Amino acid sequence: MRVSVIGCGHLGAPHAAAMAELGHEVIGVELDPDKCRALSAGTAPFYEADFEELLVRHTSSGRLRFTTDLAEAASFADLHFIAVGTPLREDGRGYDVSQVIGAVRSLVPLLHRPATIVGKSTVTVGTVARIQEVIDAGAQVPGVDLVWNPEFLREGYAVQDSLFPDRIVAGLTSPRARAAIEEVYAQILDRGVALILTDPPTAEVIKSAANAFLTTKISFINAMAEVCEFVGADVNTVAHAIGLDKRIGPGGMRPGIGYGGGCLPKDVAAFTHRVGELGAQHAHGLLAAVESVNAGRPLAAVELIEKAHGGPISGRVALLGAAFKAGTSDVRDSPALRLAVRLAERGAVPVIYDPEALAAARALHPEFTYADTAEQAVSGAELVVLATEWPELTADPKLPEDAAGLVRRRVLVDVRNAVEPGPWLAAGWEVWQLGRKPQRP
Ligand SMILES: NC(=O)C1=CN([C@@H]2O[C@H](COP(=O)(O)OP(=O)(O)OC[C@H]3O[C@@H](n4cnc5c(N)ncnc54)[C@H](O)[C@@H]3O)[C@@H](O)[C@H]2O)C=CC1
Ligand SMILES: O=C(O)[C@H]1O[C@H](OP(=O)(O)OP(=O)(O)OC[C@H]2O[C@@H](n3ccc(=O)[nH]c3=O)[C@H](O)[C@@H]2O)[C@H](O)[C@@H](O)[C@@H]1O
Fold this sequence. Notes:
- The protein has 19 helices and 14 strands.
- It is α/β, with parallel strands linked by helices.
- α10 packs across α12 and α13 packs across α14.
């Protein structure tokens, strides 16, 4: 099939490469000329596992190309994925959907034969109806169909999740659109992956509910970390034990500094606002509590750091990690950087290292001090904070030994509860984690 992907950011670019991998001829449309140039040259504009390899393979084979020209995509493709951004409005009252509306409004008059528009961006409940109005007002030919096909991929696993999703959801506005969805995802559906065919409002709620549930699980275990601190219990053991109940499951329940990133925080905020507008009081109360727990996590982390230090810190603090989670260079709404801001407010000097996200962190927070290696960050620091759970930081067997001679006090505060304390304790470190008793050598 000939498909276009409009908006080639963290979602759209890997999605375009995955569509090429599924055998389609793909054109990616990206407004930002630098990003478009990089993608055309086979260079990933951000770190995402396996993505660049796929990009190189398919830009070289000619099955995948990029353009800034929407008209070129409109005349080339029969199916158009919309993957542009839906940031939170500046006043926090729901999404700014202007990129989605703008992209559809520009595309529709350029379509001169029947086509399917497949929305992947995350939108507020009720937005698809607005987009349908834009199509109805602008279509020059009959047969321009709209499908809402929310995306569930995780950054760091974007390629894997695009090629091997748990399910595909399609909110249909016409029976014809069903055939287009079945054709574009045929290879995935042939493997028996569930296809949920439904109406657009249900598709919209499925996406919002999925992210709301994921954040509820994270805030729940973080609230349990707070309880554990009061009674001297161990939250990692609690998470493991309750996760063995199949109804609860072990996934997505790592305690720590809270959820961040370009999606979960804004999606829950937008959903909370929308359910409030709708008057769904219980949903509003539940989601507001989830957000409130999350908002408290950086302070909980600062309090743990100061407890471990024996008071506020005025010197250097090595902050290992800047990305919002391991496996990505994305620092949007990163809990690690939220923590850096808090520490700086209280007089400490964070010195930040990250294996992939240094450039992005520097661009967002030029006021901080950065280090090119973990050892450099640790040098002369009062203590070490593990702020992003990169395996090369949490499981590097040499780091505890190498850092031991560089830091002023051998104190590791792991605010992701991701470090296996053994090697650190063996190298003479105290290990502090959220919702756990401190461990001493
Ligand atoms: N990042 C992720 O892992 C996931 C994101 N989503 C949703 O996907 C959407 C996109 O998210 P990201 O890719 O993270 O955002 P992003 O900001 O990384 O990418 C959006 C891209 O669209 C481009 N763009 C905007 N208007 C355009 C237009 N008219 N024509 C061509 N390009 C245009 C921007 O220049 C930007 O590169 C959001 O609604 C997000 O909630 C959904 C699931 C996963
Ligand atoms: O809608 C989206 O954009 C996407 O948002 C999340 O994906 P992502 O933001 O890539 O990251 P997650 O792996 O879910 O992590 C989000 C945040 O929660 C934190 N987290 C995650 C899991 C956990 O157990 N504990 C925890 O604190 C992570 O460190 C990170 O800061 C969802 O997992 C995807 O299914 C969804 O498609």
